[in-house]
Specification:
Elements lengths: L8 H6 L2 E16 L9 H10 L2 H7 L5 E3 L22 H10 L6 E7 L2 H4 L2 H10 L3 E7 L1 H9 L10 E6 L8 H9 L3 H6 L2 H4 L1 H14 L4 H18 L2 E14 L2 E2 L15 E2 L2
Parallel strand pairs: 3-4, 3-5
Antiparallel strand pairs: 1-5, 1-6, 2-6, 7-8
């Protein structure tokens, strides 16, 4: 069984199954509509991440089976770099960033997918943001309609504020260029969803240049570029993780040679069933 809910780990172990964990890239992210004021200001986006207590989210809502994000890439990834900006709860700093950006009496609607583990986080996120002076209305929508009905709009029609959703493109591979370009590349995410390509083409192009150069390099020189890309993402935050999930996999002890993987799916190569 892949993607075991953390709260069910003990139940499965009591039933005689083996449950193993692997830290991966799977995450919950916040996406801002950067075409809409005040989310066109990176300081406002940063304020939201300082306001939200990601450590508390992982402890209370993920049963500890997640790690607060300290970079775009997850800790343990071969190209991980602790980012220039690591967001730990600092309500006063969040308030100051909002004030310095000239933002007062901000009222937002947070779109959240109806995944149980995602929707379960919204009450705390609302409370954290309201402590920083931001009024929050939660709007839960079906995962199937979040993009088609709310986010995939042309700039002139973009009306949403921000969204909370899950994602894990590492099922297609762990290459940093793939993972970064999934949400921040020249595609529908930056053209219609976060709108970042349109709202800040200078920074968007800067990041793309770093990624494009990185894929032409190797070794330490390549890692320097991946570090730079992770620093830019931690500064700009058009789409950014709150935490990276620990993926739990359960299996019958009669299966030998099986190893869990840190992404969706099961890898049964080399596994055998004993009598």
């Amino acid at each position: 069984m892949e993607n075991v809910p953390a709260d069910n780990k003990q139940i499965l172990e009591t039933a005689g199954l083996t449950v193993k964990e692997a830290k991966g890239f799977g995450l919950a992210f916040i996406l801002f509509n950067t075409a809409k004021a005040p989310f066109n200001k990176k300081e406002v986006r940063q304020a939201f991440f300082y306001a939200i207590d990601s450590e508390k989210l992982t402890k209370n809502n993920m049963s500890g089976m997640a790690t607060p994000a300290s970079s775009f890439l997850n800790e343990g990834h071969a190209n991980y770099h602790k980012a220039k900006n690591v967001y730990k709860k600092d309500t006063e700093k969040a308030k100051k960033l909002l004030a310095d950006a000239g933002v007062t009496n901000l009222q937002v609607t947070l779109l959240s997918t109806d995944h149980p583990w995602v929707s379960g986080m919204t009450s705390q996120i609302k409370s954290d943001l309201e402590a920083a002076g931001v009024g929050v209305t939660i709007q839960s929508v079906a995962s199937s309609s979040l993009y088609a009905d709310y986010l995939d709009k042309e700039t002139k029609d973009a009306s949403f504020d921000l969204a909370l959703a899950p994602g894990d493109p590492s099922v297609f591979g762990s290459d940093p260029a793939l993972l970064m370009n999934w949400w921040i590349g020249d595609n529908i995410w930056t053209q219609k969803r976060s709108q970042w390509k349109n709202s800040d083409p200078e920074k968007f192009n800067q990041l793309q240049a770093v990624i494009n150069e990185a894929v032409t390099l190797t070794g330490a020189e390549q890692q320097k570029k991946w570090d730079e890309a992770q620093d830019i993402l931690s500064e700009e935050l058009p789409v950014y993780p709150l935490f990276h999930r620990t993926l739990l996999t359960a299996y019958n002890s009669k299966v030998t040679g099986f190893m869990p993987i840190a992404m969706t799916g099961l890898n049964l190569l080399g596994a055998r069933l004993t009598k």
